[in-house]
Amino acid sequence: MSQQRRGNPDLRRAVTAPAPSNEALEARLRDWVSPGTFASLKTVQDKGRHLRDRVLTLPVMAAIVLSLVSRQISGLSEALRVLEQEGLLWAEAQAVSKQALSDRLRTLPASLFAQLFEQVLARRQAQPRTEVEVLPAHWQTVQQQFGVVWCADGSTLESLAKKLATLEQHASGLGGKMMMVVEAFSRCPVAAWYSVDAYAHDQRWNDCLLERLPQGGLLLFDLGFFNFAWFDAFTQANKYFLTRWKQKTAGKVLRVLRQGPRYRDELLVLGVYRSNPCSYPLRRVSVQWGTTWHTYLTNVLDPERLSAQQVCDLYAQRWRIEEAFLLTKRLLGLAYLWVGGSNGVQIQLYATWIFYAVLMDLCADVAVALRQPLERISVEMVFRSLYHFSRARQQGRAEALLPFLVQFHHSFGLVKAQRQRQRRRQAQALDIWAETLS
Fold it and tell me: For residue 172, what pLDDT band results from cuts at 50, 70 and 90?
């Protein structure tokens, strides 16, 4: 019997050599984070700053941290070597000490990167939405009904390196907690918040989430946000949610909308035996998969607007944010924190999500070119294939990134294979909802 390996699996395979520069990817980063946008974020005049701050300006720091993520550079020392030899993105080649970079990561306001992150999201919203072209028809109707469909969840950042002296002040040694919102269908980030408290409850960000969601929008979340007052706030604000049913929650059924041998759709009132019940009726949808009943809760009361089948299938899209956490932590290196201070952690957090947004935009273009749904495109393999494009470009075998990926998509495994369990689940879904389809 094999022994279970100890330690964090995200940190077992460390990358030692940085990936080669990729002109096509760097061009996308320049389009989204052009150096001209940094001027509006400048708050201190050069004469009032130290020499280190005048050298490591916001554009230079953005080039360094984005290169750390995009080129999988193993650490600050290696990043400074590359900066000295060839430069990084729009930053020209220059010599900088590691101590200066470490100090700058601790002192450069992380709020500047938060504003930069918001600017990137605004630019993406202004661009044509290519992923809509490959969105399946049953999701297009949901998108049109609600305008936006978002997923929200929190994730604890991994433990900091033990050698950092800052850990003496933190008993847990964890890097804090982030709250993320991503689009359910495109998986692109929408908003990000950070707390130094690694054990912060998800409901700390309830007001921020409700304020960010536009009217008529739909938010998917898990049981960590289960709160009667918050459910009422959604209805009062003309906004919608979808979550799982919490066991042992008392409720009184008002009316059964529809039911079959393996599903049930009903309206009910929650908290009838509590001093603070829900003020508005909600809708509960239950479905039997195998021998297990799965139950969901929403304030979309009209089954014509969101059918029982769509409720069940839509909640499965909540896992898109779990995939986003997995990609940013394991693939893009957010599991390994560069510095111990919370300021540097926030800078790394926003830089990682900026590059993740650029990467998802590339995946959407690949999906359109291959005429495949975005959910069938492997983000990891698209990212890893960038190395092969860099080599092909150096050898004169490729000029443009997208045609190269389309040509070798089978070799690179860009399209996910449909697994047997997925086919079984589709057949089971047809059996469950056969009555509603007839």
Answer: low
Round to the nearest angstrom and report the end-to-end CA distance of the chain: 52
* Domain range summary for the chain, segments of one domain joined by +: 131-322
Could you count the other beta carbons within 10 Å of the beta carbon of residue 257? 16
- Residue 12, SS3 per DSSP: coil
Amino acid 162: pLDDT: 43
Q: How far is CA 344 from CA 1, 176, 298, 349, 427, in A?
A: 42, 12, 39, 9, 49
Please give the Cα distance from 53 to 412 (Å, whole number).
43
DSSP β-bridge partners for residue 298: 242, 283
Neighbours of 147 (CB within 10 A): 12
Which residue, 162, 200, 155, is CA-closest to 11? 162
CA 409, distance to chain mean position in Å, is 24
**φ, ψ for residue 258, nearest 5 deg:** -165, 150
Q: Which residues contact 396 (CB under 8 A, 6 or more apart)?
A: none
Cβ atoms 256, 264 nearer than 8 A? yes
| The pLDDT value given to residue 150 | 93
Read off the amino acid at residue 55. Answer: V
Say if residues 124 and 357 touch (Cβ distance below 8 Å).
Answer: yes
Are 190 and 182 contacting, i.e. CB atoms less than 8 angstroms apart?
A: yes
Region of residue 216 (phi > 0: left; psi between -120 and 50: alpha; otherwise: beta):
left
- Beta strand pairing status for 240-244 and 218-220? parallel
C-alpha to C-alpha distance for 290 and 148, rounded to whole angstroms: 32
At 120-139, the pLDDT tens digits run: 888 888 776 655 566 788 88
Query: Is the CB of residue 323 less than 8 Å from the CB of residue 359?
Result: no
Q: At 216, is the secondary structure helix, strand, or coil?
A: coil
Fold for 131-322, please state it. Answer: Transposase Inhibitor Protein From Tn5; Chain A, domain 1 (3.90.350)
